Structure formats: C-alpha cells, structure tokens
Amino acid sequence: MAYTDFIAAIDLGTSQMVGMVGTKNEEGILSIIAYEVENSATCIRRGCVYNVEETANKIKRLIRKLENKLGDTQINKVYVGVGGQSIRSIEHSVPKVLGADGVVTEEVLDALYQECMNYHPDMLDVLAITSPIYFLDDKQEVNPKGIPCNRIEAHYQLIVGRPSLKRHIINSISERAKIEIADILVSPLALADVVLTKDEKELGCALIGFGAGVTSLSVFKNGKLASLSVIPFGGNLITKDITNLHLVEAEAERVKLAYGCAVMDKDNDQPISVNSADGMGLREIKLSELNNVIEARMKEILENVYARLEDTGLMGSLAAGVIITGGAAALKGLPEVISSQLKMEVRYSSIRKGVVQNGEIVATNPSYATAIGLLMKGTKNCALYIPPKPEPKEEPLESVLIEEEVKATPEPEKKIKKQKKPSIFDRLKKNIDNMTGDLFDDEMN
Asked: Most buried among 134, 140, 411, 422, by the most CB within 10 A?
C-alpha cells in the first residue's frame, strides 16, 4: 500500500534513535504506520549530536528501514526531537502600555507574541515558546481578550539551548543525510503532551524522564509549563559504575535491568550469576554489591532532581504528584524512593487514552512515548510527492468512428486506359518507315 499523506518523526535518544511514521484523523487521533530503532550510542552523547557523520549514516539507515514498510512511498521530511543537556527554560516578560481607554484585543496579543519572537538571548537558541501567563494591571487573567486595562504584561517560558545543539542536527540530517527537517521540537514538551492529562497540568505535577544520557524535569502548574530543566546524568552512568564489578558494559546493562534496585537491601547477600569478562563461563557477585553501586549513583541523580524542583518554588503545591518515565525508570524500588523523599504520589507514565487509535502495542512501550509525542505535534505532510504520470489522450468517440468508417470505405477503382492493338495498316507503315530509315543510314555511311 502506498501512502500519500503522513507525519514522520525521529527521536534522537542517547542509547537509541526511534523513527516513527503515522497519520492523524480529523479528530487528531494517531494511527501508527511504521516504527524502527537504530542504535545511537556511537553518535549521540547526553542527548546531543557529537558525531555528525555517523549520525547522518544512521539516520539514512533508519529512513530506509521505515520506507521498506511504506510500500512505494518515500519520506521527504521529518520532525526531529531534541532533549540535550543544555536545554532549559527561562522566563521572558513582554509589557505593553495601552493607556486609560485601552482594551486587550487579538492584535495586542499578537504584538506581544511577535515581540517575544524577536528576542534572542546571548549565546542561546530559542527552541520553543510556551503559551504565556497574562497580567492586566498586575492582576493575573487567564483569558485577557476584551478586558479593559491600562497595562498588560505577558510572561513567557522560553525553551533555550546552545546553538551547537540545533546546528549539529541540521548538519547531520539536512546537509549530510539530505533529509529535509520539518521542524526541531523539544522532546520533553512533546512527551508531556501525550502522557499528562489536562487536570494533572492544572493541579500541578512533575514529569521526570530518566533517559540513558540525561534526566529531564518538566514542572506544570495551572495548566502551564512552570519550568523545564535537563540534568546531565542518566542510566548510562549507572551501567558504567557497574562495570567496576569487573563486568563488560553489555553484561552490566543486563544485570542492571534484571536485578537492579534503586535502594540497597544490606541484609540480602544473595549471589547472582554473571558472565565472566572472557565470555568463557559464569561467576557470582553479591546482589548487595550490585545494588550498593546502583543506589549511590541514583541518589546523586535524584538529589539533582530535588534541587531543581525546589528552585521552582512549587514543591508543596503539586497536587497531581510525580510521573516518571524513560528506560532508566525501570529500576525496582524507584517510585518508592522518590515518594519517600518528596512525600508525593509517584506513578509510571502511560500514553493517554484517545491519543493512539491503531498501534496500541507501540503506545504501551515507554521507549516509543517521545516519538509518539513528536508525531502528535507534527502538522506537515512528510511524504514525498511524486507527480502522476500523464495519461494518454483519448480521442473523441465521434472522430474515432469517422476514422474507422474512412478506413472501411474501399478506394475508388482507378480507370486503366486500354491500349488498342495495332492494325495491319499500322504494321505495314512501321515496316516501310524502318526500311526507309535503313536506306538513309547506308547513304550516310
């Protein structure tokens, strides 16, 4: 089956990049057409592209694998999600004096937004601008349009990052892989839109994404983003710490997922079997030793999360609690550790009902949640347009019939002019002329 209209997105994760293609119906519900995964450990570090050439090669390979599932259709452009360590939110306010007879109109709100768009922080790129909080004569208003006031001020949350973050993405995908970028989207915001409910954002909640390279924290209150920050520590650090137990990295990752716990049980000296470094057999390590390593690193990551959360000033007002997601969130005991520290309810994230119509199996896998969020934010058709081949012109039926009648009509017979047989007199005359001619020829000779 060939598709002519779809959205394509790529989530650039530290351990893997996820490519996904889907369509949205009139109600905005998503159907997953195809998805593929490519290992990115050799080219993405802490959510940022650091090897542009290798990233381009993996992007091209990922696109080919997706196109193999799309029939004769090719991918022309993609939405790209970023969540690197330099990303954070900053507040930017735009005031406007309307005067004594001023009234907030749509034109006033548009002018505030345009002025915010023209703001460029030093040494930073603006990746996204969230919907603002309005203050009319220093009083907060949710819907300011039509309300008289002397002065209006819009408070925006700008999502910013180092210029190299965006530049390396364009360099690897657009310039080297030759794939057009439909837009560069902020991954934590896209994720929040598909796992958090409207009520959770209104009551206040914290979404913590435990990734391989980084840990992101998105805080919402009164339906708006209050803060976004990225901590440059992730699950990969825990894996590398486990290698100090004389395990290769692949085995350390396996052991972490199979036996790891965010809190150590000192009384549990149960031995576990692990593959030896030479790959020739098994050996044993104590479960308490493993979890002692995991607890130490996870404690460091969580302390950074708690500090960022306290900086928001909303620690005691997040009635909807904490939602955790990401591959590194799979550690046993992690929700209990966070809940004990923050005194809040903690739950694992899941894609909201009504977001995905076809592809529920994908929607239940947290590894694909961000890619689904990117698809939901996409609006442009990412399919390559191939103009249809011109059909042969059909002659009118009347002219065809006339031509056939002409061909069927026999050509008029040509009149053949019959030659008369020479008479006896003509033959005698011809003989006499010949004889006379011979006489004259003899005289000439």
From this structure: 134
Comparing CA positions, the residue from 362, 378, 369, 375 lying closest to residue 348 is: 369
Q: In a 3-state reduction of DSSP, which class is residue 430?
A: helix
Distance CA 149, CA 144 (A): 9
445's CB contacts (< 8 A; 6+ apart) are: none
Q: Tell which phi-psi region holds residue 195, choosing left (phi > 0), alpha (psi between -120 and 50) or beta.
A: alpha
Mean pLDDT of 124-152: 94
Q: What whole-number distance in Å separates Cα of residue 260 and Cα of residue 137?
A: 54
Residue where the block lists tokens 């996204």: 128
Q: Is the pTM of this model over 0.85?
A: no
Q: How far apart are CA 67 and CA 65, in angstroms?
A: 6
At 254-289, the pLDDT tens digits run 999 999 999 887 767 789 999 887 777 888 899 999
pLDDT of 11 over the 90 cut: yes
What is the distance between the alpha carbons of residues 434 and 428, in angstroms, rounded to a whole number? 10
Cα 135 to the chain's mean position, in Å? 35
CB burial of residue 423 (10 Å; 0-12, 13-18, 19+): exposed
User: What confidence score (pLDDT) does residue 445 get?
Assistant: 41
Amino acid at 84: G
User: Where would I find the beta strands (DSSP E) of 311-380?
Assistant: 322-325, 346-348, 356-358
Helices 369-377 and 187-195 cross at an angle (nearest 10°) of: 90
Residue 393 has what pLDDT? 66
- Measure the CA–CA gap between 11 and 372, rounded to whole angstroms: 9
Mean of pLDDT values over 401-418:
53
Position 319 scores a pLDDT of 95
- List the beta bridge partners of residue 347: 323
Hey, CA dihedral for 295, 298, 300, 302, is it positive or negative?
A: negative
Angstrom distance (rounded) from CA 382 to CA 5: 7
Average pLDDT, the chain: 87
Q: What is the DSSP string of 143-210?
A: S-TT-B-SEEEEEEEEEEE-HHHHHHHIIIIIIIS--EEEEEEEHHHHHHHHHS-HHHHHH-EEEEEE
Query: CA 157: distance to chain centroid?
Result: 23
Q: What is the pLDDT of residues 350-400, one digit of tens each?
A: 999 889 987 667 878 888 999 999 999 999 999 986 666 666 666 555 555
